Structure formats: C-alpha cells, structure tokens
Amino acid sequence: MGAHRPTSEFPRHLETLYERFPFERSMLDDPISVIRPLARDPHRAEIAGVFASTLAIGNTTAIRGAIERLIGLVDGDVANLVGRDPSRAGARRLRPFRHRWIRGDQLAYLGRVLARYYEEEPSLERAFVTGTGSGGFAGGLAALSSTLRGDGRTAELGRPPGGYRNLFPSPLDASQSSCKRLTLFVRWMVRDRYPDFGCWREVPTGSLRIPLDQHVHWIAYHVGLTGRRTRSWSTVEEVSEALRRIDPIDPVKYDFVLCHTGISGDCPKERDLAVCGPCSLRPDCLLWRGRKVAA
C-alpha cells in the first residue's frame, strides 16, 4: 500500500473545519488563555509566554494549573521573576513549585537568564532573528534555545540547576527534537490573529513551523500531511510545508484547531461514526479510507 495522501478536496475540508471551529469553547481549556490578558503589553506578554510555553508539558488542565500556580507565587505577574533581584527573590518564591519534571529552581534560573538578556536587548525576537540569518527557522529556534539556556553566561549567572538545559532543546541537536514548546512560543509571539499575541514584527507568519504535539501529529499522519510516525524536526518541516501549500501566508493558523480537535475528543482516534460523521476531514482520514457511510 502506498503512502496515504489527502484528497484533492483536503484544503477545502480543512478550511471548513477552521471556519466551523468553536474557538471560545477551546480557549477556556488552552494555556494561552491564562496569559492573554497581558497581550497589550508586549514585554510582559513575552516574559509570560516564555514561562507558560516552558510549562506546556502534559494535558491542558495540568498545564493551566501549573501556570496559575506560578502566577500565584509571584504576586500575580510572571514579569516579577525578571525584576531587580531575580536571583534571590525567584529562588525563594519558587522553591515549592513542581510541574512534572520542572522545578522552581529551574524557573528561577530562567528568570535570571531573561533579566540578564533584557539588560542588552529589548526582546527575544532579536535572538531569534539573528539565528534565522544563517540557519532559517531552525537556526532561529537554535539561537533562541541557546539564549534561554544561558549559553556562555555561566560565569555571571552561575551553574544552572540540574536538568535546566534540557528544557530548551534545539532542532539542530542530535536528537532532532520537534521543539514543540519553543515553536508554540514563537507562534504566540508572531501571529497577530486570534488567539495569538503578535508581539514580534520582524518574523513573517509564512515562515512559522507547526508546534507538533501528539494530537496534531496523529491527525496530520492520518490525513496524509506526513508519513512519519515519530515527532522529529523532519516531521515538523514536512507537516509545515504541507500546510504552507494550503495557506502560504499563515500556515500555522490551523494549529490551534487541529490540536483542540484532538484534545476535545472531536477526533476520537478510532472509527466512531457518531463523532466522525460530521467531521469535514473524514473523507481524507486514513481510518475511513475506502469505507462508505450510509446516508
């Protein structure tokens, strides 16, 4: 059997899914909703976006809870972690924090890294754009990852806590990480259409890559956007290019919809006519290929 491919009608089917999608329902379950109130202040939104995307591990309920706990520990504003004395204040306030394998001491160190960076640059966009000059989007993520790791700053920041550097993988690492959390952060910063913030102005939306979580990957594989079964950077590039052929100006506008189609159960990941019947992508889905459905 050859590689599965979407039907010629797939672009129309995907656009229908997008147009009909209940954004407000899913916004209540998405981590971005916790930090959207900061969108009018680009600097605070960027800081909150870094911390929120770093915590984007696990299910959305757990992620939202972790972000809300973090905000509660810093007097309601994550930007307080990047204040005049982020080393002492951050370490003390965040000592009890845990989310999966992420610890408070790691987030306190991130606050110190950001504080030092912002003494020299107004936005992380500069680090990203500098990296794209020689390495394209992957180079931009690599440069952003290096900045957040604090590479080259150990002498002034101190040795990072155990496991800290692993929080910021690069697509250029040997592991070929899909870098879901960093691509999510960049999506939030670049796109100026709902639900994203549009804080960055130098990065074109057409260059964005898909934040490839398990739900997006499952759907992308089953509608033929990729034949890869693992979530590597190569898979990210393949899915992103397929979406770019549909909308070259804003290819990752479909990310939120595909992700929450999986999260909400609108895609049950098995044949269930009661759920799949109304889905506009059913004619393209591998699970339904060659199967006729009675009217």
Key phrases:
295 residues; Endonuclease Iii, domain 2; two-stranded antiparallel sheet; 14 helices; globular
Give a brief description.
With 295 residues, this protein is mainly alpha-helical. The chain has helices spanning 10-20, 23-27, 32-35, 42-54, 60-73, 86-94, 104-118, 125-149, 154-157, 180-190, 214-222, 233-246, 255-263, 273-276, and strands spanning 98-99, 102-103.
Instruction: Calculate the mean pLDDT score and round it.
Output: 92
Radius of gyration using CA atoms only: 20 Å
Number of strands: 2
**Largest beta-sheet characterization:** 2 strands, antiparallel
The N- and C-terminal alpha carbons lie at a distance of 28 Å
Number of helices: 14
Q: How are helices and strands ordered from N to C?
A: HHHHHHEEHHHHHHHH
Strand order within the widest beta sheet: 1-2
User: Helical percent range?
Assistant: 40-55%
| DSSP strand content | under 5%
Q: Which structural class best describes the helix and strand composition?
A: mainly alpha
Number of discrete domains = 2
Low-confidence stretches: none
Shape: globular
Explain this structure:
By secondary structure, this protein is mostly helical. It has 2 domains: 1-22 and 205-295, Orthogonal Bundle (Endonuclease Iii, domain 2), CATH 1.10.1670; 31-203. The protein contains 14 helices and 2 strands; from the N terminus they run ααααααββαααααααα. The protein has helices at 10-20, 23-27, 32-35, 42-54, 60-73, 86-94, 104-118, 125-149, 154-157, 180-190, 214-222, 233-246, 255-263, 273-276, and strands at residues 98-99, 102-103. Helix 11 packs across helix 13 (255-263). The longest helix is centred in the middle third of the chain and has 25 residues, at 125-149. It is globular. The two termini are 28 Å apart.
